[in-house]
Target: Ectoine hydroxylase
Amino acid sequence: MAELQTLQYDTEDMYPSRLYAKPVSIPRQDPVVYSKATDHAPLTAAQIAEYEKKGFLFLDDIFTQYELDEMISEMHRMREDSSIKQREESITEQESGAVRSIFSLHTLSDVFAKLAQDPRLVAIAEYLLGERVYIHQSRLNYKPGFSGKEFYWHSDFETWHTEDGMPRMRALSMSIALTKNESQNGPLMLIPGSHKRYVSCVGATPKNHYLFSLKKQEFGVPDEQSLTQMVREGGIETATGPLGRITLFDCNTMHGSNGNITPYPRSNLFFVFNGLSNRVVEPFSSTETRPEYISARDSIKPLETVIFN
Amino acid sequence: MAELQTLQYDTEDMYPSRLYAKPVSIPRQDPVVYSKATDHAPLTAAQIAEYEKKGFLFLDDIFTQYELDEMISEMHRMREDSSIKQREESITEQESGAVRSIFSLHTLSDVFAKLAQDPRLVAIAEYLLGERVYIHQSRLNYKPGFSGKEFYWHSDFETWHTEDGMPRMRALSMSIALTKNESQNGPLMLIPGSHKRYVSCVGATPKNHYLFSLKKQEFGVPDEQSLTQMVREGGIETATGPLGRITLFDCNTMHGSNGNITPYPRSNLFFVFNGLSNRVVEPFSSTETRPEYISARDSIKPLETVIFN
Model:
């Protein structure tokens, strides 16, 4: 695999955004599933076809109850740890001050460092991305009861491309539910098929955008007409389901979530696997890079490979 | 029925709120269903029992498609009518400026004036409240797509009592869905059984509270502990359902809704029927009354009776 590690996409901007005065819709230039069907796969053919078509897939019964208990108690420990709350990796709610996200989980916690390298997860990421992978970003998302705020529709790739310099669509996310996700407590919503089109957003990236975009995104926001068209074609699917469910989704799948006034909090772990050839270059539409804990750049380490041996 | 029209509750404050430094839970002092089971009823015994127990009831197939079409086109006409948009009865979204509510529908529109007096609706209100009724408030609620804001949990009665001077729990609301209400577009959520307890809220009513409370409520807000307890006991039910569904609910049933980032708008008509003996007196915890279009006071007219003849 030595040769794979040296390959890297060039810096041509295949997905320009935040550059034009009007929204532009660009067809996806990259595969969704990079491995061949004949390769040994950690998913069924039906699952792979569903992922390719919709841009996401739900996986249940991956973890044992013991593993889930360990993740949940580690989540609680971290949220209550005042030394972690004070770190820049912790993002708090604009109004209530409660912890909303903790970034770079895999460097702050041994439990989550081990989870990020779990062969069951790495094998899926390697298969779909067709090469060795590394963690581009990881975080804990906590949507508290009563005051959980919405996350407006977005493609993660749009931000990773413009602000972090991720060249191509060769990354995926795994969101692991640490609470039951119900229709009422602001679950993730995804637009099936939206990953096959890139919505080029309007408006230049302001300086230090990440400091407020993690609370409320105002740039890199897709236009209503494009969203309406995508929903008309694909509908909306909601990631409601049991504790422990993995929502696996492509980097360009349009997603978002409503707020949460119910007493039920909602939390999940979030790992972004990126192909090693797709490691970040200079940002495509920003004058500065984001911090290492939001976007790995200097600390890139390929995960122990499962498939590519 | 002449004697009923002259009866009126006295001005003792049975449900103090916004007076204490801590939240207080007060048991309901009033019946939920005022008529006797032996009276001729426009609902089945099972429906009445469900309403008594949960504090709400869903009614489908009341209106014909023709009637619904007429309501929808009247809604669109009113929302686009610039003379109505400029009236004080129109409430706009804090951020987007879009029309969120139009109050006093039954005085601004012949179509909705007729609907407010519809014998099918009046008969249900008269039966449950056990006397002649009038419209305390009516409005059109429009939750736009993409930017629909949440309505936090509240008991309508808490506001009608403290700010309008409604003496007792002898009022009910009918919400008529003019769009399909889905789990994703911010549907009404209700807490079954919450109508049997009154949560006395903390914080005095500020002057001209109604001018901003209709956009974002900051007083008369129930505490999280009381809400958690109510949800633990009764759960949460969501008023998802077909266009034309009536959600009938007691004035003290705790309800609210999450925001709506989907492209699907959500709209409904809202009529509050109050028992004639329960007409408003001086506000119980406010130094001023709210305008006539929010709370009928001088313009009270009993609706043509269906049952009490």
